[in-house]
Write a structure and sequence with these properties.
Blueprint: H1 7-21, H2 24-39, H3 44-71, H4 92-100, H5 102-105, H6 120-128, H7 132-135
Helix pairs in contact: 1-2, 2-3
């Protein structure tokens, strides 16, 4: 029978494996999540689920950040920040339709026409930016 693995050896093995497998969140949070699991008497399966969920959440947040960086928006704009009062010709329903993104999956183009300063760039940039809650990494 082999000797049990010490906490130090386990931490080192986790660090090496996470580096090899490119799991930065598991690498940084494994110890704190394991301590929490011990405090809360979580099963091994529950601990594994917590660790993997944290990695997936951070992976998706990094993916969103990369995609936003790739489009090179001049600055981040959010549809929720658009002032409908300043542009009364835009119906709230139009703004809601842009926010749902249904036009993307339907393959429909979006064309915005208007004078300078009417919010076209804000609407287009906001349509391509995640909501503020998604940008911060929490679920939408």
């Amino acid at each position: 029978m082999s000797a049990p693995v010490t906490d130090t050896a386990a931490a080192h093995a986790i660090d090496l494996a996470c580096g090899t497998l490119h799991l930065p969140t598991v690498r940084s949070q494994a110890t704190s999540l394991a301590e929490r699991a011990t405090r809360e008497c979580l099963s091994y399966a529950a601990l594994l689920a917590e660790i993997l969920a944290a990695e997936v959440d951070d992976h998706e947040a990094r993916w969103r950040e990369r995609r936003i960086a790739e489009v090179r928006f001049p600055r981040t704009k959010r549809l929720a920040e658009f002032d409908l009062g300043a542009t009364p010709s835009i119906a709230p329903g139009t703004l809601a339709a842009l926010a749902t993104g249904g036009w993307i999956s339907a393959g429909e183009p979006v064309v915005l026409l208007g004078d300078s300063g009417t919010g076209k760039t804000h609407l287009l940039t906001g349509s391509g930016s995640p909501p503020a809650s998604a940008a911060s990494g929490s679920a939408t």
